Amino acid sequence: MVMPNIPCNRPLPHSPGVYQFKDGSGKIIYIGKAKDLKKRVTSYFKTPEHRQTPKTTALVRHIASVDFILADSESEAILLESNLIKQYYPKYNVDLKDSAPLAYALFTKEPYPRLLKVRKDRHGKVRGPPGKTYGPFMAGAGGVIRLIRNTFGLRPCNLPVGKRLCLQYHLGNCSGACGGKISREDYAKDVHSAEQIIAHPERMEEYLESLEKKMKDEAAADNFEKAMRLRDAVRSLRGIANRSKMDSATDKDEDYIVLWSDGDSARAQVWSMKHGVIRDRLKYEFEHVEADPLEAFLERFYESHEIPRRVIVNRLPQEAALLEQHFARLRSGAFSIERPPSRGARADLMRLIEKNMLSEKSAGADPGLALLQKELGLDRIPLVIECFDISNLAGKQIVASMVQLVNARPKKSEYRKFRMRTVVGQDDFASIKEAVFRRYRRLRDEGTPLPDLVLIDGGLGQLHAAKDALEQLDLELPLYSLAKENEEVYGLEMLHPLRLPKNSEALHVLQRARDEAHRFVIGYHRKLRKRETTG
């Protein structure tokens, strides 16, 4: 099948995200979401006109270029799509702009606060009484919010407090604040508990465990109807974790800036948030001579852009305090430059920006590979990675495996198995050396291209064994090992092992290769043992 010609300046990945179709003037005419960007965008261009709707046919005829933003999940892509539609209102999204199933939880600013489900208007303003909002949440948020409200007995009505009891009290859903049945102090404690669950979904697990125990107790007592209600409650509460990085990061105005420099060139992205909605997503590439390109970038950028209350950056500029004073004078108000916290919505949003920058830099390669190149200081993106592992049983039947990942995905046709020929007894170092030597002697003699990175399962000992094998062959390849106990990366020129963050996509690529090599060698070893016992 001939692949359609898609006007995108970088290859589309098989990843969730949001795609943007632009016309000849660069104006966004359609924004869509996808579980698999490549499949979804390609479908527009390869579907014959007679099988498309008139609206889709008209859309495709006007597409001059395609851009995309990566997301971490399909649900996040839905939220990001809605966020961007609120900003641009593209021509072909007219019928969809008000249909996004997004809702927020609002705790009203009252002596006895209510918990309400509210929405935001197209300008990002909450449609509801004054209070504190959390979210957004996906479809079904009304049931989740109602469940939490009923669980903690928060009042849904706006009747005068202390006058008369409402129907919800008699139904067992309210603690009776409207009738003076609960003190303001006790009611505030219940509000705080409900707010903690909504604001910190990770703390909900303890509450869910207690609900599940009640559900089992009711089922054991043959109270199946009540058990089913509790089951539904547990399922609904688990959905509250589907919050958006974009809208939960903040309800205030702030800019997120990621800047990477390499020598005298730099690349930056700025995502501007207005009332929790992305209003601008700007990209820059520039040459510089300054010692601190971020400082120079901030000065130049805010000469022509609105200065927000806060700027979140991936690293602090050298003269952060002076810049804060300078911009505070320019905006006649408080201003701060901050690093994101290690976790939370702001950290998640910064990682999302970095992921998209890596995707653009890698020209279609897996973003984790571009990050791996950066972390290890490699000359090029390691598109082809080969990983070795050893397996033995009390020194018997020592075998090795080699797996290959191309663009961070297993290429099983290139997997290889080795039975040791020269190793006597249990010697993992000698086994690694033999497997590495045999693999790359064959590639060298055949003139086959060598991998971009060689990874060994193990620590320094295994790493140096592989190094000896390559030296015997007069080959120089980027060579590293990954020790499983602490997930430490060892390199020949490293003074200390490298510990990548657990959520690092670069580490995930290495782990994927290591785990696949381990799975492959264990399977081979079991096959040999079975053959020995049955033969």
Chart the SSEs and their pairings.
Layout: E1 17-22, E2 28-34, H1 37-46, H2 54-62, E3 65-70, H3 74-88, E4 103-108, E5 115-120, E6 126-127, E7 131-137, H4 141-151, H5 167-170, H6 184-199, H7 204-220, H8 224-238, H9 245-248, E8 254-262, E9 265-274, E10 277-287, H10 293-301, E11 310-313, H11 320-331, E12 336-338, H12 345-361, H13 367-376, E13 384-393, E14 396-406, E15 409-410, E16 416-419, H14 428-446, E17 453-457, H15 460-472, E18 479-483, E19 488-491, E20 498-499, H16 505-534
Parallel strand pairs: 8-11, 11-12, 13-17, 17-18
Antiparallel strand pairs: 1-2, 1-3, 4-5, 4-7, 5-6, 8-9, 9-10, 13-14, 14-15, 14-16, 18-19, 19-20
Helix pairs in contact: 7-8, 12-13, 13-16, 14-15
Stated plainly, the CATH topology of the largest domain is called Nucleotidyltransferase, domain 5
Poorly predicted residue ranges: 95-101
Radius of gyration, CA atoms, in whole angstroms: 29 Å
* Strand runs, count: 20
Q: If helices are DSSP runs of H or I spanning 4 or more residues, what is the number of helices? A: 16
Counted up, domains total 4
Main structural class: alpha+beta
- Quick one: CATH superfamily of the largest domain? UvrC, RNAse H endonuclease domain
Tertiary shape:
globular
Estimated helix fraction:
25-40%
What CATH first level of the largest domain would be assigned? Alpha Beta
Largest sheet: 8 strands, mixed
Beta strand %: 15-25%
